[in-house]
Design brief:
Blueprint (H helix, E strand, L loop, with lengths): L1 H15 L6 H14 L3 E8 L2 E7 L3 H5 L3 H5 L5 H4 L5 H13 L4 E9 L5 E12 L5 E10 L7 H21 L4 H16 L3 H4 L4
Antiparallel strand pairs: 1-2, 1-5, 3-4, 4-5
Length: about 200
């Protein structure tokens, strides 16, 4: 994650130059680095479907129109920012990553600005757990996906593929071979909007 790499390298530089930069100056520089990167940084946690924002960078206002206090005070939550059509798929992916103890992952979805416009973004997540592997919080960075790389039709298709593949992987866990084949055909048929019988039809 290039954002974390930049931040880590900057922090290392500041630590090596402690005599030049005092603690207050170091904190100021770090804060400026975060705020000036064209990305929004969050720290949040969740209990089921209830999301709590503990921190969000001030630049969320310039980029998406939300005041940081709106999120940290609970007036709106992170999931409220996600396009309604993407929420179910996104939550399935998050629950799957959590269940498989994956602590670093990317997500792709559309975020809603305060004016109602939607923007394709890439979200980078690092999960912090305690000694019992209970999730404490997420450190998250969201960045706009290049419009040149992702068109609206391709985005919609991408989310459908993610949902189908995720369902297949989750359903295949501890399934026998015959059942696994049925699951794959059913999910593939759902993605192609056709029946399992048609998948076997001779050309």
């Amino acid at each position: 994650l290039f954002f974390y790499t930049i931040l880590a390298q900057s922090s290392l530089f500041l630590k090596k130059n402690t005599l030049v930069y005092g603690m207050a100056e170091r904190e100021k520089i770090t804060s400026e680095l975060i705020e000036n990167v064209p990305a929004v940084v969050f720290r949040f946690s969740h209990d089921g479907d209830n999301w709590k924002t503990w921190f969000v960078t001030q630049n969320i206002y310039e980029i998406y129109g939300y005041a940081p206090d709106e999120l940290t005070d609970g007036q709106i939550t992170w999931i409220d920012l996600v396009h309604p059509e993407d929420r179910v798929t996104l939550m399935k992916q998050i629950h799957d990553y959590e269940a498989r103890m994956i602590n670093e992952f990317k997500l792709y979805y559309r975020i809603l600005s305060k004016d109602g416009t939607s923007t394709p973004i890439t979200e980078y997540n690092t999960v912090k757990r305690d000694r019992d592997n209970t999730i404490l919080y997420y450190d998250t960075t969201i960045m706009e996906t290049s419009v040149a790389d992702v068109r609206s039709r391709e985005i919609t298709d991408h989310y459908r593929q993610q949902m189908v593949l995720n369902d297949i992987l989750v359903s295949l866990y501890s399934s026998d071979l015959d059942k696994a084949l049925q699951i794959i055909l059913d999910r593939t048929g759902a993605y192609l909007n056709t029946s399992r019988a048609l998948l076997f039809q001779d050309s």
